[in-house]
Amino acid sequence: MRIKISLLLIALLTVLGTQAQAKKWTLRECIEYALENNITIKQSALDIENADIGKSDAFGNFLPTLNLSASNFWNSGLVTDPITNTNSTQTLRSSNYGVNVGITIFNGLRNIKTFQRAKLNQLLSQYNLGKSKDDIALFIANSYLQVLLNKESLKVIEKQHEITLEQLQRTKELVDAGVLPQGDLLEIEATSADELTRIVQAENSVQIALIGLAQTLLIKDYESFDIAEQEYLVPGAEMLEKPIDQVIAKARDSRYEVQIAEQNKLIAEKDLEIAKGAYYPSLTGGLSYNTRESGANTFAQVLDENNPVLTQTIGFVEGTGQNVLNQSPNFTLVERGPSSFIDQLYTNDAISYGLSLSVPVFNGFSSRNTVKRNKVNVKRAEFQLEQAELDLDSNVYQAYLDAKGAAEAYEASQVAVIAQERAYEYAKDRYDVGLTNAFDFSQSKFRLENAQSQEVQNKFDYIFKLKVLELYFGIKIADIKL
């Protein structure tokens, strides 16, 4: 019974494993998977995290600084007691403690400008991430359509080979009946062998395209990776009916290339404002509290119990010569241990506070040259923005012409296929009645196959170029339906 259960489990796991390997990837699944796992996109996401950290740093410049300090050290030899300020030869331990608060009151508005720049850089990072996603999605779509193209081309060859095999059987029967010469059969067999070769080549092209797509998706299971088999209809040409000026205007508003260039220009302008802030004075405020304690012994004056009164002669009476005496308490100096830690902290503390003004007068042209360099960067960013707009206009116009040309090529290939189908039917009818030889018939079938292959190629080329144009129009590649 256990053996049967084990075999059943093994069979079930095998079926589940086969089903898992039989997964067919759709275009949307490929794009979504790439957007979640692509390394370039992950790096762009890290740039956003860095931009967020930079914004937090810029905001922190507005806040006061608070620092605590503490030290404890030993000195041996002739040392100065930090409490009594007396020198003695000994080993002395002492400690210091402090709290310091500082705040920037004014520094040429550089803190404000830095915070504004951090927000611009944050937005720039988001634009870069969006551009990375669009680029990856477009690349995935192109690779996906290449697999579809190779598969459709394989189907065309396989379909023609099926016709060749049928014709080969019919020709063999006619040759055996003495209606057709042996050479016609050899011609059909040569055509069949050539088609088998091209089928193998087409299958290799499909596998290579699938491996390329899997590598782009970072999928290592090349053998089981495959895309979904479905009919991809040719989309409508509504986009080509729009005026090119409208497409270009929409692209300027939605494409990340121009937005990135605009943000770089704004950042360069903000850097210039920050550099000019070095021309202004800076004012800072500070508050500090410090205290200290020492392990040195202390000395105190104590009344002498054995001789509590000290009598001293301070003069004499003139005429009588009698001494004038003075009595005072007799104190003696007694060495004691150090005062308590808490008492010393309270006794030895001090507070300082004030303002600090720094006025830039001359720093070797450093500030002025920094401003000049940032002015150059602003001009460079302006040129880059202008170039980005020109490049975008050129790319959109080229994409528009490419899509339009691809549409016309696809329509022409459809007409060519219809014409070649008629020519093939005519050649087939003539061949069946012996009015043409096998070579001419094979050439007619070969021209039909070329026309069908060209139609498939033009179809997917048109689909891709139309999707590129839609992307420029602001339709995200993940939202495009095939």
Automatic annotation (TrEMBL):
Pfam families: OEP (PF02321). Keywords: Cell outer membrane, Membrane, Signal, Transmembrane, Transmembrane beta strand, Transport. The keyword Signal applies. Residues 1-20 form the signal peptide. Its main location: membrane. Coiled coil: none annotated. It is found in: Cell outer membrane. Belongs to the outer membrane factor (OMF) (TC 1.B.17) family. This is TolC family protein.
